[in-house]
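Worked example
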Amino acid sequence: QVQLVESGGGLARTGDSLRLSCTETSGRTSRGSATGWFRQAPGREREFLAAINWSGTNTYYADSVKGRFTISRDNAKTTVYLQMNNLKPEDTAVYSCAADTSGWRRFINLGRSYDYWGQGTQVTVSS
């Protein structure tokens, strides 16, 4: 079973940058999996942010973060990153990564396209 662990969250101020990591820790990486990042703020629905395929050649972003967030991966480290720049208070949420073991389902922006999820890491941005 794929196990995903997020890290890199914490406290930030408006305009700061953070880099989140999503590491597959079980040693049973599903080669070919796509990885997505989502977030959920209190009282709000889960929101898709970005996705990347296994080779890193294909990425997809939500309009809300395009230009501020960048997804990347290092398969040698079994880690996918989410670089977040120019953070805003509305970015405050629990950020989670997820794996799509099929490689890239049609609706990659939907939670149901993913097979495994991490526990999440809290990001809090103060003004």
Summary: The radius of gyration is 13 Å. The longest strand covers residues 93-100. The mean pLDDT is 94. DSSP finds no helices and eleven strands in the chain.
